[in-house]
Write a sequence for this structure.
């Protein structure tokens, strides 16, 4: 468990030049925006700091000299500055957000394209939640850095610089007195940042735990309810929840101490101004206007200083996020494409396995020295106990995984010499468990393929016998498919997946028969559908139904990753080997049921 979340706890340096360099590549196309944002920032930072200075002029020159007309002019200028500031701020906010959105849009596209290219091996090993977090949360953290982080750091720094400029031009000694608390502030901020960083790490870890617990729990809600595990699960949840709360409270403590302390410091500097500056006013070595301006500048000064420590956090989590994102982008778990691909335009559908060895991990072979040949148009049934390696055979035929030894040929061409897309164009696979996407029944049959017309969709559904139940749905083919087809029965989903395969018009069909039993009527429907599917194409059927097995041209019997027997139904029965025993155990009952 702890191991699983280690990745999400990366929280290291706030600035890593290597990562930054790579991140800036994404900014490059939008450097005009960056330039514009920086320029606007310098400008917008100066505007508020002009105001106290203008007020100082108003007090010292016009109010002191009772010049009402001049005072009006100063007030108009003040108003003008305010309006200008609002307008510039509008453009600034708009363009920095726009830039951020554009950058992370590109990044999401790149990430998704990359994830789509990854081999199934990656998904076997990586929790779904983690990959999703990369494309959503982590990218969002980067957005925060691009849109509010980096650019407004400039604004904060410039505000501070401008305040310094105005303060020191008005009075050196008062500036020094006012700023005497700054070292304390910096030290407090540094300490706070360090503590918050530590507690933030804890929060993240516990949040990741909470999320993944919730996700798993909600997905498996039916199992929890069936077995009455609510109480136990609630206990587990309570503990995770409690830990998360404790982690949060810890960080709240730091905030609760830090912010009042900053308030205290800023009040202290105000007191210093009143005391030292006020004394100078009494001695007439300072004007009231300057005193007033200083009071306003100190107030203005604390906000950017506090913001800067927030920015530090943003930068730090952005660095951590980018590190995780780049790690995913650098993951090279691909099924390699050939250097000089051979074409596989029209095929007859001949399949040959030559001494194939395959392991999912290391040399833990799940398929050992498999050899067989299927002639064009033939149907081959693969049978064997669970875990024998049946599904693995079809996984490697479509190159979802690559084999370690031997070769697989289609029409005499090694499948590793063909582009994956081209290879898979010829092979339609109906998997053991049907996966439906959100959308309509129609879109689930065509999978959005524009080449498949509505007519073909309905034709395919009719052929496999799915038309009857689809037409009886309130919206027919346009019926919404909800939550992976939760409102459809297992048999209905199966029929839809058959229609999907048929509409694809493949030369080779692979069928991993579902083991789940369905009612007799659907069973007959599915049986007929399978017969229709097999006509005129090379087929490999991982069969659990006796009828499918019996009608096959050849039966391959798998046992612990090896081909043990091959032959027709009659031949294999006569051998009295594994198939014979399997038949006695498994299929004979089916026959009895059918004849009864
Ligand atoms: N396996 C694995 N990694 C995967 C899938 C399978 O290590 N991603 C292993 C399984 O643990 C099993 C072996 O590979 O020991 C063969 O699995 P499979 O080909 O899926 O078995 P089937 O014969 O298809 O079993 P079933 O009838 O239950 O579908
Ligand atoms: Mg299987």
């Amino acid at each position: 468990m702890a191991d699983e979340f280690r990745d999400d706890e990366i929280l290291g340096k706030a600035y890593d030049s290597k990562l930054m360099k790579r991140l800036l590549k994404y900014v490059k196309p939008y450097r005009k925006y960056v330039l514009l944002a920086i320029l606007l920032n310098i400008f917008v930072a100066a505007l508020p700091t002009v105001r106290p200075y203008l007020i100082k002029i108003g007090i010292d020159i016009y109010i002191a000299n009772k010049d009402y007309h001049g005072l009006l002019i100063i007030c108009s200028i003040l108003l003008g500055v305010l309006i200008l500031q609002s307008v510039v701020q509008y453009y600034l906010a708009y363009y920095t957000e726009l830039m951020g959105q554009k950058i992370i849009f590109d990044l999401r596209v790149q990430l998704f394209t990359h994830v789509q290219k990854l081999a199934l091996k990656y998904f076997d090993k990586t929790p779904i939640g983690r990959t999703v977090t990369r494309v959503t949360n982590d990218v969002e953290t980067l957005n925060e850095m691009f849109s509010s982080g980096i650019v407004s750091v400039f604004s904060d720094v410039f505000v501070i610089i401008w305040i310094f400029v105005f303060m020191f031009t008005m009075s050196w000694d008062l500036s020094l007195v006012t700023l005497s608390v700054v070292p304390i502030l910096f030290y407090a901020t540094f300490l706070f940042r360090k503590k918050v960083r530590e507690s933030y790490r804890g929060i993240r870890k516990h949040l990741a735990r909470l999320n993944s617990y919730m996700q798993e729990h909600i997905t498996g809600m039916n199992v929890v309810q069936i077995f009455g595990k609510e109480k136990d699960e609630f206990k587990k949840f309570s503990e995770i929840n409690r830990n998360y709360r404790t982690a949060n409270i810890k960080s709240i403590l730091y905030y609760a101490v830090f912010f009042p302390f900053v308030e205290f410091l800023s009040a202290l500097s105000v007191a210093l101004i009143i005391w030292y500056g006020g004394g100078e006013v009494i001695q007439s070595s300072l004007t009231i206007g300057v005193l007033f301006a200083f009071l306003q500048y100190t107030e203005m000064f604390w906000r950017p200083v506090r913001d800067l420590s927030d920015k530090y956090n943003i930068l730090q989590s952005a660095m951590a996020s980018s590190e995780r994102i780049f790690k995913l982008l650098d993951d090279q778990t691909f099924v390699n494409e050939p250097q000089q691909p051979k074409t596989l335009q029209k095929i007859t559908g001949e399949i040959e396995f030559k001494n194939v060895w395959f392991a999912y991990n290391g040399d833990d072979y799940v398929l050992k020295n498999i050899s067989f040949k299927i002639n064009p148009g033939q149907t081959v049934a693969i049978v064997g106990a669970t875990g024998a390696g049946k599904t693995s055979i079809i996984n490697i035929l479509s190159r979802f995984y690559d084999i370690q030894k031997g070769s697989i040929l289609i029409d005499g061409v090694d499948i590793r010499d063909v582009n994956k897309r081209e290879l898979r164009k010829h092979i339609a696979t109906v998997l053991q468990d049907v996966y439906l996407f959100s959308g309509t029944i129609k879109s689930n049959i065509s999978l959005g393929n524009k080449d498949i017309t509505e007519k073909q969709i309905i034709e395919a559904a009719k052929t496999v016998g799915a038309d009857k139940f689809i037409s009886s749905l309130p919206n027919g083919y346009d019926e919404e498919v909800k939550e992976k087809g939760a409102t459809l029965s297992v048999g209905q989903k199966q029929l839809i997946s058959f229609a999907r395969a048929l509409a694809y018009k493949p030369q080779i069909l692979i069928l991993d028969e579902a083991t789940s039993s369905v009612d007799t009527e659907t069973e007959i429907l599915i049986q007929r559908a399978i017969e229709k599917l097999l006509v005129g194409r090379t087929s490999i059927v991982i069969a659990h139904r006796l009828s499918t097995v019996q009608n096959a041209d050849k039966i391959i019997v798998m046992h612990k990753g090896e081909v043990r027997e091959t032959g027709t139904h009659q031949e294999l029965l006569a051998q009295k080997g594994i198939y014979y025993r399997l038949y006695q155990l498994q299929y004979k009952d089916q026959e009895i049921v059918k004849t009864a």
Residues 2-329 form a domain with the ABC transporter transmembrane region fold fold (CATH 1.20.1560.10). The CA atoms of residues 19 and 322 lie 7 Å apart. The pocket of cytidine-5'-triphosphate (ligand 1) is lined by residues 124, 360, 366, 384, 386-392, 432 (CB under 6 Å).
